[in-house]
Amino acid sequence: MSETTTTLTAPAPAYAPTPTAVTAMSAGAVTELLVGIYREALGAPGLDEQSDFYENGGDSLTAFQVTARLQDALGVDVPVALVFAYPTPADLADVVHTDLIEG
Questions:
Q1: Which of 69, 98, 64 is nearest to 80 (CA)?
Q2: What is the pLDDT at residue 12?
Q3: I want to staple 100 with a disulfide (CB 3.0 to 4.6 A). Which of 41, 47, 76, 89 is the partner?
Q4: What confidence tens digit (pLDDT) does each residue in 29-75 have?
Q5: Which residues are within 8 A (CB) of 30 and not within 5 positions of it... i.e. 6 or more apart?
C-alpha cells in the first residue's frame, strides 16, 4: 500500500509587502498594514486605525503575535513594549515608521 503525504501551506498574509517596498512605505501604508494585523490577531474585522488594542481584547500573547507578524512583514525588529505603549494601529504605525523604517 502506498502512502500519500499532503503538505498544507498557508497562503501568504494579505498584509505582507515585498522587502523592497518596505523602505518606501508611507506612514499611512504602515497604518493599513497594522490595522490588518490587529484585525487578524484580535479576530475583530471591524477594527480601524483608532481601535485600542486593550479595549478589543488584546493581551500579552496577542501583543507578541502582533509584533511577530509585523516583523515578518517589514523585516525589522519590533519590541513588544511598543504595542503596550502605543495601543492603536495609528500610534504604533507612527513610531514604527519613524523609528524603525526611516530611522
A1: 64
A2: 47
A3: 76
A4: 999 999 999 999 999 999 999 999 999 999 999 999 999 999 999 88
A5: 74, 93, 96, 97, 101
